[in-house]
C-alpha cells in the first residue's frame, strides 16, 4: 500500500483520489485553505490544482517534498485567452517544477484525462489510459502500478522532456471540450 497526498479538492483531485483508493492506497487531501500549514503524509504527492497555484505549493513544501514522487497534472493554459500555453515552446511546467524540486522525482500524469473518465474508468468502451512521463524510472513504475491497481491503464510515455507534448495534448483536449467538439467524457484510451 502506498500513501498519497493530493493538493486540491476539486473534480480532478477527487477522481484521482478515487483511483488510488480503489487500488488500496491511503489518500489525504490538502485544500487551498490548508496550504502551508498541513503536513504531507504521502509518498506520492499529486498537484491537482490549477497551474497558477503550483508555485505557492512548491515554495511552501519544498523541504517536505524531498524524496517524494510529485505528480504534476496541470495544463498550463493561458486562462485569459484560452488559446495558448504559458510555458515556452519545447518546455513544460513539469520541467520547471523539477528544477525547483531537484531532490524530488517529478512526473507528468493525468493531464490528458478528464475527471469523468478517471471516475468511470472508461473512455467509450475502453479502459481509461493515463500517460506518465518523467526521468525517474522507479517513480514512474510505482505510479503506474498504483494507477493500474486502481483499475485504469497506464503507459510510460518517456522522459520528462515528453511532458511538453503531454501538456500540448492536454491543452488540445481541453479546447476541443470547451468548444463542444468532444464530450467531457471523451479522451485518451489505448488498445494494446
TrEMBL record:
It holds the Pfam family F420_oxidored. It comes from the Bacteria. Residues 37-76 form the Pyrroline-5-carboxylate reductase catalytic N-terminal domain. Keywords: Oxidoreductase. The keyword Membrane does not apply. InterPro entries: NAD(P)-bd_dom_sf, P5C_Rdtase_cat_N, STEAP_metalloreductase. This is NADPH-dependent F420 reductase. It comes from Microbacterium terregens.
Amino acid at each position: 500500500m502506498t500513501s498519497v497526498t493530493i493538493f486540491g479538492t476539486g473534480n480532478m483531485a477527487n477522481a484521482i483520489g478515487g483511483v488510488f483508493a480503489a487500488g488500496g492506497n491511503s489518500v489525504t487531501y490538502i485544500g487551498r485553505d490548508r496550504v502551508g500549514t498541513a503536513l504531507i503524509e504521502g509518498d506520492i504527492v499529486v498537484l491537482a490544482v490549477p497551474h497558477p497555484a503550483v508555485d505557492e505549493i512548491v515554495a511552501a513544501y519544498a523541504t517536505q517534498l524531498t524524496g517524494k514522487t510529485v505528480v504534476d497534472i496541470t495544463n498550463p493554459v493561458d486562462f485569459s485567452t484560452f488559446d495558448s500555453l504559458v510555458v515556452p515552446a519545447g518546455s513544460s511546467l513539469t520541467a520547471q517544477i523539477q528544477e525547483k524540486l531537484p531532490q524530488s522525482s517529478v512526473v507528468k500524469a493525468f493531464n490528458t484525462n478528464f475527471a469523468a473518465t478517471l471516475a468511470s474508468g472508461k473512455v467509450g468502451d475502453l479502459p481509461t489510459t493515463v500517460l506518465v512521463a518523467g526521468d525517474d524510472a522507479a517513480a514512474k513504475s510505482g505510479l503506474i502500478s498504483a494507477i493500474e491497481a486502481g483499475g485504469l491503464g497506464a503507459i510510460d510515455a518517456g522522459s520528462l522532456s515528453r511532458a511538453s507534448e503531454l501538456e500540448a495534448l492536454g491543452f488540445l483536449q481541453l479546447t476541443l471540450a470547451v468548444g463542444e467538439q468532444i464530450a467531457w467524457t471523451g479522451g485518451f484510451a489505448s488498445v494494446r
